[in-house]
UniProtKB/TrEMBL annotation:
Record's keyword annotation contains Glycosyltransferase: no
InterPro entries, alphabetized: FAM107
Record bears the keyword Coiled coil: yes
Region (Disordered): 34-94, 114-145
Assigned keywords, A-Z: Coiled coil
Domain of life of the native organism: Eukaryota
Record's compositionally biased regions (Basic and acidic residues): 65-94
Gene: FAM107B
Protein name in UniProt: Family with sequence similarity 107 member B
Length: 145
């Protein structure tokens, strides 16, 4: 399948550069620029180390992006939990006293609730006896005043 149109042939599309002609020694031929990163000593050492590791079979693991992100989030979450635990451990004296008082108040409230439930569940004759005692004490106190 030969193309009949000479304009569609890639050779004819681009102009050939002048420096290809070796006839003229006055022309300065372009040279490839030096990459400062590749010429640096650190880069060369790193490249050499990677090549050696690859030959040994110790190439760095290529993890998917999602897995890297999930591992980073997990690490961050663990660090955050550790900081919270440390903050809870380092409570001040005031906070400790407030916690103790709060626990005491809760215990007192529970005891009051238990007493109320016992009084409500008590038989009728116990309630009447209690009322009689109260009225007897009130009547005994009334003549004194």
């Amino acid at each position: 399948t030969e193309l009949k149109d000479p304009y569609l042939i890639p050779k004819n599309i681009m102009a050939e550069p002048d420096y290809i002609d070796e006839d003229n020694p006055e022309l300065i031929r372009p040279q490839k620029l030096i990459n400062p990163v590749k010429s640096s000593r650190n880069h060369q050492d790193l490249h050499r180390e990677l090549l050696m590791n690859q030959k040994r079979g110790l190439a760095p693991q290529n993890k998917p992006e999602l897995q890297k992100v999930m591992e980073k989030r997990k690490r961050d979450q663990v660090i955050k939990q550790q900081k919270e635990e440390e903050a809870q451990k380092k409570k001040s004296d005031l906070e400790i006293e407030l916690m103790k008082r709060q626990q005491k108040l809760e215990q007192l409230e529970l005891e009051k609730q238990k007493l109320q439930e016992e009084q409500e569940n008590a038989p009728e004759f116990v309630k009447v006896k209690g009322n009689l005692r109260r009225t007897a004490q009130e009547s005994a106190e009334a003549p004194d005043s």
